[in-house]
Amino acid sequence: MTGPSDGKVEREVKLGAWPGFAMPDLTDVAPGVTVEVRPALDLDATYVDTADLALVRNGASLRRRTGEGAPRWTLKLPAASSEASSEASSMSRREFDVEDDTTVVPPVLAKLVTGWVRRAPLAPVTVIRSHRERTALLGAEGSQLAEIDDDEVSVIDGDHVAARFREVEVELVDGSEDLLHLVAEALVAAGAGAPDPTPKVARALGPRALIPPDLIVGSPEPTAPMADVVTAALRRSVRQIVDHDHVIRLDDDPEGVHKMRVGTRRLRSDLQTLEPVLDGAWADELRSDLKELAAELGIVRDADVLLERLWRAVEDLPAADRAVGARVVHRLEEERRALQGELIDVLDSVDYVGLLEELASGALRPRLGTRARERADQVLPELVRPRWRRLRKAVEGLGASPTDDELHQVRILAKRTRYAADLASPVVGDAAADLASRLADIQDVLGDLHDTVVAEDWLRRTLPALDHEARFVSGELVAAQRSERAALRGAWPAAWAACDRKALTRWLR
Questions:
Q1: pLDDT band per the 50, 70, 90 thresholds, residue 1
Q2: pLDDT, tens only, 346-382
Q3: pLDDT tens-digit profile of 333-344?
Q4: CA 207 to CA 57: how far, in whole Å?
Q5: Four-residue CA torsion sign, 124, 126, 132, 138
Q6: Cβ burial, residue 123 (10 Å; 0-12/13-18/19+)
Q7: Are 483 and 316 a contacting pair, CB within 8 Å?
Q8: DSSP type of residue 113
Q9: Could you write out the DSSP letters of every residue in 350-363?
Q10: pLDDT of residue 88
């Protein structure tokens, strides 16, 4: 078995085709493009999934395929939003290959689907055989821009063919999105069907594969019972947690840790806000079980935020000092790598998988109290009000020169109040949504202020291990943090004034 590929982003358009469809001449479909016919392939693919098709329903797929070089397992994952295509008709997915001649899912791929699979076993769900006619589109000097695969697909059930269909895929290799859509338009003009992003495995499995994921997130109506608010809130956060498990494991996008951390923090906050309409003991236990994961995510996230901040500060140094500044920040990168390893150990643990099961079960079937039957528009203001009053009291209790710790506590209260207002916004409407937005602003200002404190603390702790030149540059970096902190101290009162307005808080009075 070889290690996994680096996870290239696959960008393609899929089109259905009728049996008599003939591939048009695509020479000069775009300026300078030439066509080359490649040898045909006969491919056999066995797809594995859970019994309820958790992978396919969440936009992923896992298969073992033969017929193109060595046998290999391929995992396709939803692409990050920054990598996704701008066109609804095309698909963008990350693809990981492992050469392996066994029929056992490679552990490195199995771990990447933990968030969706959890304890459910993976087993074959369908076998697809494809006769593939291939056409390459070439650019200058013979570089390959795209490949067009014309597949005659047979869905195998035991020893017979259960279904057949034809599909044409246009996949970018080193071409542009414009080329992708020019080719798709030419194929449609020649008689192919309209672009359809449905994967082969979903077409092969039929309607079951098109059922939305279990943790589908809805938006409660104002007159809905509180039970609907609970369900929407829990599913939103748990979905965010499970969807970012693989992003953290890949460790090439800091948003993975950030998004999962936000999911855990929001979920803990919502469980506390909603406790009067929940089984209190159950809500407290779930919050407690989330605490360790939230802490581990926070350690890595804090390092990511600190790295981003210090790299910006290094760029602002005099040119002669930037190389030394980079040397200082590289120490933090080494610390971050160690912290990431510790986080992965947590995600690989039996306890973590058990927590995911507990979270998914709780989001799908929350334990409710008797007040869950009451109307949301009547209950939510009552639940959010204590959060707002606690925040307002904390701000009013600050002296003329609050300490950094006091302002950090205000930030924590603002964040919790923001989550509560956001929870209420689908029901209460614009006032709650606007309050949440203004609270996010003050949270950002005070968060940046706290980050300057953390940055200075880290630089001071690192100082004894540095040489004289690096110590001097660290002093410059500390001075930059202090300067920014002074500006933020001057800015936060205006951010608070924008929150504390009757137009935004009348619904809480």
A1: low
A2: 999 999 999 999 999 999 999 999 999 999 999 999 9
A3: 999 999 999 999
A4: 11
A5: negative
A6: exposed
A7: no
A8: T
A9: HHHHHHHHHHHHHH
A10: 47
Give me the pLDDT at residue 90, please: 64
Measured distance CA(102)–CA(385) in Å, rounded? 59
d(CA 18, CA 192): 7
Total Cβ atoms within 10 A of residue 397: 10
Give Cα separations from 414 to 265, 294, 384, 391, 494 (angstroms).
13, 18, 12, 6, 14
pTM of the model: 0.92
**Packing angle between helix 226-243 and helix 404-428, nearest 10 degrees?**
120
Q: pLDDT per residue over 430-440, tens digit each? A: 999 999 999 99
Query: To 5 degrees, how large is the angle CA 121–CA 130–CA 17?
Result: 115
- Cα four-point dihedral sign 143, 145, 151, 155: positive
Digit-coded pLDDT (tens) for 139-157: 988 899 999 999 999 999 9
- Compute the distance between CA of residue 395 and CA of residue 410 in angstroms, rounded to an integer: 7
Tokens of 207: 């309607």
Residue 224 tokens read as 């809905």
